[in-house]
Amino acid sequence: MTDSTSERRRMSALLTSNGILKSPWLRGAVETVPREQFLHPGVFLDEGRAWRPVTAHGTASAEWLKVAYSVDTLTTQLDGHLTADQIGEPVAGVPTSSSTDPTTVVGMIEELDLKAGHRVLEIGTGTGYSTALMCHYLGEDNVTTVEVDPEVAARADAALEAVGYSTWTVTGDGLLGHPYRAPYDRVIATCAVRRIPYAWVRQTKPGGIILSTVGSWPWGTGLARVTVGDDGTAEGAIIGRSSFMQARAQAVTPLAGDLSARTASADSHRTSLMSPLILEEWMPAFLAQLAAPGAQFVRAARSDGAPSRYLFDPERESFAEFIADGESWTVRQGGPAALWDGIERSLLAWQDAGAPDIDTIRLRVTTASHLYWIDGSPSLGWEHRLA
Fold first, then answer.
1. Which of 318, 270, 324, 274 lies closest to 299 in space, CA to CA?
2. 253-350: what CATH class?
3. How far from 35 is each of 120, 140, 144, 225, 309, CA to CA, in Å?
4. What is the largest CA-CA distance in the chain?
5. What confidence score (pLDDT) does residue 378 get?
6. Interatomic CA distance for residues 122 and 72, integer angstroms
7. Do 292 and 340 meet the contact criterion of CB atoms below 8 Å apart?
8. Where are the beta strands (DSSP E) in 9-130?
């Protein structure tokens, strides 16, 4: 096997020159921890409509290291079970585990502001690579990592052991944290959650930081960084765009069947004040999720080829259907909740406030609710009460 030292140094230099890698200790970790060890038994490369399996044993050493040290997210599991060593040809599937791109991994660890002696809880072990980076600095006893998939957890644990880190690798539901080793100085999630679980707040020391992607759509999600207070609440901000696979327990099942049948009985219809295509942009999509937390956005086309868009909220049994009508859109709504009315009001108010970006959003987490607001625009606020 070709030594990967030069590849590690090259990746470290690239991340440093791009302003992502800043801390000397983290640069040392990136240059020491062999990412390729955490990609066994292999990865799937995106070829558009299919995923091509690539394994270390079936690829020349130099080519394998080129794959391992690309700055791309590398898919390691499809459909909750399939790994690259189980198949020899490109295959369709839905990614369910991956080695996140090093830019994101390193950037998130930098945001944790880790200090020697800190105890960290990681939600979503994945391959274990980010776990190893933190272990390199903090020591294996100060890092606890939770993975919901037993097979993924076992592979990560084996990889961590192979590179010398016998850390606390736990198989379980990360949304519950891991109270047995609490309290923690830092919590970091490498999956997206609809909202920050209060269990994480409860298990974090006052002054501790929680870092997690919030949102349930594949796009329009934000990286939340909150600090836990002495009163048991947590407050902070959305510090930028972020995209991760959804936590397994919260993963949304794509809607199937005849969408026209689901929207046959509308309670109202009108001309929309704005195009629903705005929801394909990142910040409006994030605002839509704040205004209607359970809604799903669906792209479709009518039988004549004209575009149509839908919003569905299965929990509230409500929908909004958008039909293109020349340069305008007609919206049909049905069910107890007028989904588009609330989202539209939020988007119009956001535009009136100058269309601020996602990093202007603040949030506060309590035992009873999540409160979001746009900094400098107190009228733009959303409260999600916990059941």
1. 324
2. alpha beta
3. 21, 17, 19, 26, 41
4. 66
5. 72
6. 21
7. no
8. 43-46, 51-54, 74-78, 95-99, 120-123
Matching residue, tokens 């205004």: 291
The one catalytic residue among 4, 12, 97, 98: 98
Is 98 one of the annotated active-site residues of the chain?
yes
Phi, psi of 76 (to 5 degrees): -115, -10
| End-to-end Cα distance, the chain | 54
- Run of H or E residues at 169: strand 168-171
Strands 369-374 and 318-325: unpaired
CA-CA distance, 369 to 193, in Å (whole number)?
A: 15
Is the model's pTM score more than 0.85?
Answer: yes
What are the distances in angstroms from CA 314 to CA 108, 183, 214?
Answer: 33, 36, 20
The residue among 29, 33, 27 whose CA lies nearest residue 13 is 27
**pLDDT tens digits along 323-340:** 988 889 999 999 999 999
Residue 205: enclosing H or E segment and its boundaries?
strand 204-214
| 366 token code pair | 């309590």
Domain boundaries, the chain: 5-87+95-241, 253-350
Residue 254 CA neighbour count, 13 Å, CB half = 8
Which amino acid is present at 191?
C
Selection from 189, 183, 57 nearest residue 123 by Cα: 189
Check: CB of residue 339 under 8 Å from CB of residue 333.
yes
Would you say domain 5-87+95-241 falls under CATH 3.40.50.150? yes
> Count of residues for the chain?
387
CA distance 382 to 287: 9
Q: Among 71-80, 188-197, 255-264, 331-340, name the one with the lowest average pLDDT.
A: 255-264
Q: Is 117 left (phi over 0), alpha (psi -120 to 50) or beta?
A: left
1: pLDDT strictly greater than 60: no
pLDDT digits (tens, 9 = 90+) for 284-329: 999 999 999 989 999 887 767 677 889 999 888 999 999 988 889 9
CB 125 within 8 A of CB 146: yes
Which residues are registered as beta bridge partners of 365?
Answer: 234, 370
Best CA proximity match to 239, nearest among 218, 257, 223, 255? 223
The span from the CA of 164 to the CA of 149, in Å, is: 22
For residue 99, how far is the Cα from the chain centroid? 13
